[in-house]
Write a structure and sequence with these properties.
This protein is of the alpha/beta class. It is built from 14 helices and twelve strands. It has a seven-stranded mixed sheet, sandwiched between helices. The protein has a three-stranded antiparallel sheet with strand order 9-12-11. A two-stranded parallel ribbon has the order 1-10. The longest helix is centred in the last third of the chain and has 20 residues. Bound molecules: pyridoxal-5'-phosphate (PLP). The site of pyridoxal-5'-phosphate has 13 residues, from α6.
Length: 396
Amino acid sequence: MISQKMEQLGKKSSVIREIFEYAKKRRAEIGDDKVFDFSIGNPSIPAPAAVNEAIRRLTAEQDPVALHGYTSAPGDLGVRGKIADQITRRFGMEASAATIYMTCGAAASLTISLHAIVNEGDEVVVLAPFFPEYRVFAEKAGATLTVVKCREEDFQIDFDTLDSAITDKTKAIIVNSPNNPSGVVLSLDTIQKLTALLDKKQQEYGTHIFLIADEPYRELVYAMEVPYLPLYYKNTIVCYSYSKSLSLPGERIGYVFVSPRMDNAGDVFAAVCGAGRALGFVCAPSLLQYTIGECLNETANIDAYRKNRDLFYETLTDIGYKIARPDGAFYLFMKALEDDAYTFCERAKKYELLLVPSDSFGFEGYVRLAYCVAYDTIERALPAFRALYNDYQESK
Ligand code: PLP
């Protein structure tokens, strides 16, 4: 007998994957340029040239046995030290290699962090709309998920709901800003209110509540600052990834940073190492670790995303669609033109528009549009969005 839970998980394909397969089929039927696929969040801009230069340099100049050999389980000490220095320089926050653990991207960072802190029966709070894999990771770690919906007017935190959702069993809250799927950045005011609430709840219950900052989109932000959470709350664990910031999603590289400000940082980091070990996530890919160490000041050129965002957001809102103001990441979160987002997506398909219904993000009645696509795909898709809108107006 195999694990039924895992079997079910493996057999249940995600909505996004289903749309991806449909897009492939449709392209073969009617041609590439006639299908407008906004389903997948795969970066559409190349990694900075410095990344490939670093890989060429490392493979040409370094001893191949050492270069491709195991690093220590939490990662190469030199690379972790460089990341710590960058955190200190950039955010004015004390950091050292001693609480940095290299991982295979944010997915591994999250699952390691959750396994490190959760005991069976604990609760993990997520703010909807949220990345659907949070449920998989949290439940696998033994937690139950508590979903708190953000305010619909601006997708900032609804503190009345959050206040009543935090209990003496709450072990962590996951914060993802800039957000997938809304593109919204949580304001400094929101972060300060959040950390004050968490401090109050910790005191009230005599517990530790961890703030997990899921940060794959930190660098994808347009004209605003993203508050660095360890500066505002001591029990913070940062789950960072280079998947989007350096356009390297397939290379699987990121890290966990346990804030040294938390009282028991050494023990929490030991638990992170233990979770990495138990999950088989030791020694992240060594070539990528060394490459990252050479490219810490690089970011993919996000101008293309900004241009896409401006054209897409402005034209769709002019047409009449309602969209959360996206200040970062590469997604638009758009209100469907009827209550059921699935039915709306089916109707959009008639115009060859492939959109993701929002239900799996824990927030019904919306669709996610990933605009990490070529600019001209958006230009060509806009008449179809207009026709879809008119179609709904006429059928009212
Ligand atoms: N967290 C969020 C919010 C994401 O959108 C993603 C990927 O799209 C991840 C985590 C996982 O990122 P990675 O590719 O670094 O594992």
